[in-house]
Amino acid sequence: MENEFLQRLVQIGGVDITTTLDRFMDNEKLYLKILLKFPNDQTFKNLKKSIASNNIPDAFMYAHTMKGVAGNLGLQNLLDILTPLTEDLRGGKTNSIQSFMETLTLYYDNICHLIKQMKD
What are the distances in angstroms from CA 101 to CA 24, 48, 49, 63, 95? Predict the structure, then answer.
């Protein structure tokens, strides 16, 4: 892995780049093309809105979608939070949502900042 940005993703962003690049058939260019679109995706924003309005079915749908995207892109830090959040939402458990969302927001902002730096 010679790409300096990919190395920063691993070190700072908690990205499982080896497994992820295997998924992308070692096509770094394709991976980066898709990753660069991540900060513009509206799923996180919609998840926050659904939780704020206590719309648990929609919050589950957005959390589940985001979990799939995070998994496919190797965003392990996000995946580690989204997995239990999704399961709690699936079961209608709401007592831990705020804690999960605080951590998720930190990780989400971190990875988006890192990706946006690459664009610049």
Answer: 29, 8, 12, 10, 12
Count: domains in the chain: 1
> Of 97, 120, 94, 102, which Cα lies nearest the Cα of 39?
120
Q: Give 120's pLDDT tier (boundaries 50, 70, 90).
A: low
The total of other beta-carbon atoms located within 10 Å of residue 116's CB is 13
pTM equals: 0.91
> Which domain range does residue 69 map to?
4-119
Contact predicate 82/68, CB 8 Å: no
CATH number for 65: 1.20.120.160
Q: Which amino acid, one-letter code, is at 12?
A: I
101: nearest Cα among 117, 120, 81 = 81
DSSP per-residue codes, 15-43:
B-HHHHHHHTTT-HHHHHHHHTTGGG-SH
